[in-house]
Amino acid sequence: MDFGIKNRLSRIFSPKTGKTVMLAVDHGYFQGPTTGLRDMKNITPLVPQADCLFVTRGILRTSIDPATKTSVCLRVSGGPSILGELSNEDIIISMEEALRLNASGVGMSIFVGAKNEERTISNLGRLVNEAQRYGMPVLAITAVGKEMARDARYLGLACRMAAEIGANFVKTYYCEDFHKVVEGCPVPIVIAGGKKLPEMEALRMTEDAIRAGARGVDMGRNIFQSDSPAGMMKAVRAIVHKGATASEALELYQASKKSAAAESVDESLEKV
Ligand code: R5P
Predict the structure, then answer these.
(1) Quick one: which atom of ligand 1 is closest to the CA of 221?
(2) Structural domains of the chain ordered from first start
(3) CA of 54, closest atom in ligand 1
(4) Residue 210 pLDDT
(5) Is residue 6 scored above 80 in pLDDT?
(6) pTM (2 decimals)?
(7) Residue 147 clears pLDDT 80, i.e. is over it
């Protein structure tokens, strides 16, 4: 790996811990104004707490402070909406644009075992070829169709394929026997959070994934749809970077929620 790719990866994965807490806010690229992302101002306070923001160029241009110290991994695939065939994606952002936006990585979905499997895999190969030329790391996202099993056999296949095609890191879902997915994949794996879960379950999943060898998270809904997104950021960071247990992390989440509530009571009293 050359200097450029390593240097950019060091903005995504903390050089101190080798891990990352990526905040995924790209959902609108096919879902529109998702709950929690309707007003992107909700995301602003969370950005400094993330090691990296996984985001589309539209949101980056309109809603993210260009002075942010948080690195950016840019979603570069898209096309279909939730109303269409999700696997029918292509690469829609040029490498030049990713460089202009000062991205530290580019990410696209692959749809192994689904319609358009071959095209999304060959698109990944093309993206890696181009990214390699500019020292840009590539994140492959193993998207899973509704009817497909999220088990270690399937996710292991999809992650290994992504690595073989040349992705520098992979985002996938957590599953039982996740260590098998990690063992079979020669590049770092980060987990997506998936649908909103009760906070303790999301934190337990994070702890289990890290213990099984995940190098971090690229988490969205379980953070920005929480009743305390800042609390969840703190909690997830403690597990990923400090090896906290889910129970210890839950305490951080609860304390943060409580102090935010106390602050808002103080503010309303000041107005009286
Ligand atoms: C899919 O919309 C994106 O790749 C998300 O970035 C990914 O699913 C992570 O977000 P969440 O934790 O909400 O699943």
Answers:
(1) 13
(2) 3-271 (3.20.20.70)
(3) 6
(4) 98
(5) yes
(6) 0.95
(7) no
